[in-house]
């Protein structure tokens, strides 16, 4: 592998680690502006994580080693996922390590460990959050896989970097199937990252919590890792979306250092627009009751399967 | 991946959106939105017909496009909106059983109709023959909409959506029906709509609601 490939790989992981809290801060700031509130600093997530790392950890008496281990596993899974998603360039040395289906599995590992850790302490809220999260996860995963299958059918590969490459190389065409799956993917992104129609990231009411309820028992460095991992998850999902639907701007194939340099502002621009779009979606939609969430996910699945069928019938 | 020309891509997109709108109708609870979706489906049909007319140079398709615009985008939705206002059912929403289940049944129906249309489409010689599967799917989805609804209003919307599917099917298989048939169907739909409008008032006068379950039991049984 070329040095540029390794440099791309290194920069991608570094960018994911550094930019993920910034992206979260940007989404929160946009949301505040859209709701006529004064926005918090976009750097707020960094301060939160730094503050938490300086505190002393408190762990429940009934906690098993799994509870201590989970934050590292979840964080590790998210960093590993960031390494195989082509956010800046597609000439990644790690690209043969995991295809898109393995990537979905990697995200599932993080979810399973998070839910197990939440159930580990035995508090009511943790268990409740874990159960809800698994419910949403098992509904969102088939939709996500269907989205990936459509993109795979169009580019005849399941490797995410190759999907991105083929889409750029092919002559520009209208793909109704990709448009449908893009809608499905957006819905999956909202559900998986505990955003508004399914979960409210800013809620203080334990009964409506899903993601936050699972973190109630964590403190200090463990909580910092969990929150950083949540930011990374959002960042990763956004980058999967870019790779599947708008790969233009990333450096394609084995390229020089200049293409890599150009891909950084492209990524920042895409993230900026995606953050604004996400904040807009969250502002115009109301939170669903938990029992309506299956309907939301079924709609996402329907969009994805419809994309698949339309692609098979029309070849577009 | 074969490369298709841009106007065919646009036509395919229209077909895909038609299918999507059928699903939206299947899951829609509110009657006013249902009528708007129907109008949107008519508008998609209009665009598709115009594109096809332009692409093939068949002049009679312009006439049917104009007919679609006048009848399905303007007249019928307007008539339905007037009826909704007169009957005072603007805020009506009906409970749907199990939306995810209905959607899955809908998806299976789409797979079935794609399979059903495949051999027929191979006989056709038009460039749009692949969309025939979508037309069949739109018809069957409208059927499901009618089956799962209990309010008279939404059943009529399902009926009109079925007509849209038939029209689209004729268009994609043979570039439209003969003009006289098309005029006949258009007139039929308009008259049916007017008659059904009268029926709505009669049904409501008899039963104080538009729920068709009331029609299922005989008078002697009560």
How would you describe what is shown here?
In chain A, helix 3 packs parallel to helix 9, helix 5 runs parallel beside helix 11 and helix 6 runs parallel beside helix 9. The longest helix of chain A has 32 residues. By secondary structure, chain A is mainly α. Helix content of chain A is 70%, strand content 0%. The radius of gyration of chain A is 19 Å and the shape is globular. Chain A has one domain. Chain B has one domain. The longest helix of chain B is centred in the first third of the chain and has 29 residues. By secondary structure, chain B is an all-alpha fold. Chain B is built from 7 helices and no strands. The termini of chain B are far apart. The mean pLDDT of chain B is 85.
List keywords for this structure.
heterodimer; A: 316 residues; mainly alpha; globular; B: 222 residues; 7 helices; 77% helix
Number of DSSP E strands of chain B? 0
Order of helices and strands of chain B: HHHHHHH
- From the spread of the alpha carbons, the general shape of chain A counts as globular
**Class by SSE composition of chain B:** mainly alpha
Helix percentage of chain A? over 70%
Q: For this entry, what is the oligomeric state of its chains? A: heterodimer
- Helical run tally of chain B: 7
Largest interface: A-B, 24 and 29 residues
Low-confidence stretches of chain B are none
Beta-strand percentage of chain B? Answer: under 5%
Rounded to the nearest angstrom, the radius of gyration of chain B is 18 Å
Mean pLDDT of chain B: 85
